[in-house]
């Protein structure tokens, strides 16, 4: 199943931890009844059931490798979103939801792949890419990673502390944050959307033949993928995942 086989059935999952990441993003850690494990980049379905039997299902990327049978999601609150709003604001620690997964076998990174990796994240698209960073760290991999994170303002940076402070095992990981609306005082790059110059400065040269993972809103993914191709990257090594 972690390699992309169809997911198993629904299982109960108890919320054991809640962490605020930003004003609109929350990390939720669940303990399912019998989680089979997952790969970095995969996602799962979460189902909520109301007292009257009404159900709602949404898919969310896992934010970290499985540890001790726990599954971690970082969820961005969507305006008027019935599921994200409830998960972010109302589901108490100790309560239950249902999960089904893991799902997906293409947008994943395995530590056995030594090819350089370029991660391009837009907004909450950082979640599955940060799972890859965390898996690399946990596996003790030395595969060269470069992460470019496009985000509106400093207040919108998910995992801000982790991104700002290298952790043991982060050797060979380079991170660049690209602000689109407001940058910190003294920031060398003025606010702007991701462009060819950013990929030239912070990305891998095409002749390094890196694997590129791009995740974010539709517009970001389209722009980033087209820029990678324009720079000469192999389209077969550009993997995209989008939302919105």
TrEMBL record:
Its cofactor is FAD. Transmembrane segments: none annotated. Pfam families: FAD_binding_6, NAD_binding_1. CDD domains: FNR_iron_sulfur_binding_3. Keywords: 2Fe-2S, Iron, Iron-sulfur, Metal-binding. Residues 8-109 form the FAD-binding FR-type domain. One of its GO terms (molecular function) is oxidoreductase activity. Coiled coil: none annotated. It comes from the Bacteria. This is Oxidoreductase. It comes from Glycomyces albidus. The lineage of its organism: Bacteria, Bacillati, Actinomycetota, Actinomycetes, Glycomycetales.
